[in-house]
Amino acid sequence: MKKHLNDNEKIEFKYLLELVSSSVNGTAPPIPYEGIKWQSIKMLAKYCSVESLVANAVLTLDKKYVSPEVYAKFKQELSAEMLIDGNLSYETEKILKAFDKNKIKNIPLKGYFMKKEYPRSDFRSVSDVDILFDRKQADSVKKVFSELGYTFLNEDDNQYHFEKKPMMNIEMHATLVHENEESYPLLVNQLDRSIKRDGYSYSYEMSHEDFYIYMLVHNSNHFRIGGMGARMVLDSYVFLKNHQSELDYDYLNVMLEKIGIVKYEKRVREIAFNWFAKPQAELKFDDIEEYILLSGTLGRVDVGTMINSHKTITENNKSKFSYLVSSIFPPKSEMQYKYPYVKKTPFLLPISWCHMWGKRLFVDRDINFKSGIKNRMSYTDEDVKLYKSLLDEMGFDGIGINNFGN
């Protein structure tokens, strides 16, 4: 498992963060460091999902630093991101207006409001749209999405998933977090506590304090179960830059203490302002910062696999090989969410395995057997030790449902 950056990667990440900072703060973009390769910067921007921010900064550089070919590629990238953003915004508002018409109370979550915090909405890309609703209105929600041309994919213990190809993925949340998480009692009943939004009859929004707390809970869960990327740190910077002077810190501090993320919030805030508040990003490249930089946007598959594997092996006294087998043939408790017929007729579990693998092999085509086996079999005790040290440093030891080998 890759744990550290080499010297060249450190320079590239530093320059990437400074380009991002330039767009977010409306300042002049930094002159490229000697040896910077634009293709590498473009790939890093995609890896961290900050393409629009980077393209915007590059396009404002003096053209003596950017060849016509490179300029054209970044311009094309920015145009594509703006088009995607416009289409997503249009579709999302159609959904919210349909909810109004059908009296479905809701709170758009995460990326929907973060887009409004950035100087331009295309600066904050999203992979899906998350909306909180009352599970009692699930049938009405399904009816609305059907009328809007969406396909209902499946439901799990707290989410309903809808899709409209080629780009709309909707997650309807019945709860903000899973009911067995320690933060659940503190984040429940948001639909009753939130404020009705101007221009809507049934769409609400959280207070700034609750929005920030939920963002931290969500991002910290990513940190614990596979990694959180630089964009999550950037979200903290952008939100605090806009609202830190008006937050109720008495309420905020009590809630952070109860949830157990005081150390996490403090460290992420420190990193956020070191990386993005200054023209020259200040990076320590310590284990925490490298873990974040290596985590892409939402975390790493190899890290997440290591965590699930080690946790399962530790709790059930299994071997790596037995975990590999269970990932090829998942248990009923996991399969019943994707294939509801398994819950009603458990003897059809083998059919669901065929269904799953047929879809992945011939429809999704997202299988890489070599990396899948490697991720499950090749991690070391040193990898596990480093990950546990990161949890300890962030104050996560023994907290929540994502405990790791405790």
**Roughly what percent helix?**
55-70%
Amount of beta strand? 5-15%
Number of strands: 7
- Name the quaternary structure: single chain
Number of distinct helices:
20
**Ends distance:** 22 Å
List SSEs in N-to-C order: HHHHEHEHEEEHHEEHHHHHHHHHHHH
Write down the overall geometry: globular
Record keyword descriptors for this entry.
5-stranded mixed beta sheet; disordered C terminus; 406 residues; alpha+beta
Describe this structure in words.
There is one protein chain. This protein is an alpha+beta fold. The chain is about 60% helix and about 5% strand. The protein has 20 helices and 7 strands. The chain has helices spanning about 5-25, 40-45, 50-60, 70-100, 110-115, 140-145, 185, 190-195, 210-225, 230-245, 250-260, 260-275, 285-295, 300-315, 320-330, 330-340, 340-345, 350-365, 370-375, 380-395; strands at about 105-110, 130-135, 150-155, 160-165, 170-175, 195, 205. The strands form 2 sheets. Strands 1-2-5-4-3 form a 5-stranded mixed β-sheet. Strand 6 (about 195) and strand 7 (about 205) form a beta hairpin. The protein starts with 6 loop residues before the first helix and ends in a 13-residue tail after the last helix.
Produce a short descriptive summary.
The protein is α+β, with helices and mostly antiparallel strands and 406 residues long. The protein has helices at residues 7-25, 38-47, 51-58, 68-101, 111-117, 138-147, 184-187, 190-193, 208-225, 230-243, 249-259, 262-276, 287-293, 301-316, 320-328, 332-338, 341-344, 349-364, 369-377, 381-393, and strands at 106-108, 129-133, 151-155, 159-164, 168-173, 195-196, 204-205. Residues 398-406 have low confidence and may be disordered.
